[in-house]
Design a protein that fits this description.
The protein contains 4 helices and 7 strands, in the order E-H-E-E-E-H-E-H-E-E-H. By secondary structure, the chain is of the alpha+beta class.
């Protein structure tokens, strides 16, 4: 398995996502790499097995990168999500971002555990800004490790 930026041809390979989420990925890809970071995990046959999407500031009014989707084909779970997060975190740090935020539904303890294992910490509660609704959500943030060259460049 490898993680790479999404290509237009990959859009057909994420058919397991619901229509609204698929449309969100299409919009992010169309917006371009300066507005969104979308990565896919692909297997040895180059079939998409997972996707992660992050809005980049200032797109959609964001002040920090906002990770709004991490989804893995159910039959492929077991490390794919961690690999996608690692790839996204590395690319965000390379772009000079110091942190990334997300919200996780409290009814999804498996996702919350993954985010905690990868270093996210809770920073607030409330409705997801992209979803809204009455469900309880936890807002989480990860401070990104900056590469030495970036640290020197940002002094």
């Amino acid at each position: 398995m490898r993680v790479r930026r999404i290509a237009t041809d990959d859009l057909a390979g994420i058919g397991w996502l619901d229509d609204g989420t698929h449309a969100g990925i299409e919009a992010a890809v169309a917006a371009g790499t300066e507005r969104a970071l979308v990565l896919v995990a692909v297997d040895d046959a180059d079939a998409v097995v997972g996707v992660v999407a992050v809005d980049l500031p200032p797109w959609r009014g964001r002040t920090l990168p906002w990770l709004w989707l991490l989804d893995v084909r159910p039959e492929r779970r077991g490390g794919v999500g961690t690999a996608l997060l690692s790839g996204a975190h590395g690319q965000l740090a390379e772009l000079g971002h110091r942190a990334v935020e997300l919200s996780v539904d409290d009814a999804n303890p498996r996702a919350a555990a993954l985010y905690l294992r990868t270093g996210y910490v809770g920073v607030g509660r409330g409705a997801d800004p992209g979803v809204g609704g009455p469900e309880p959500w936890t807002r989480m943030r990860l401070q990104l490790a900056m590469e030495p060259a970036q640290t020197r460049r940002n002094r």
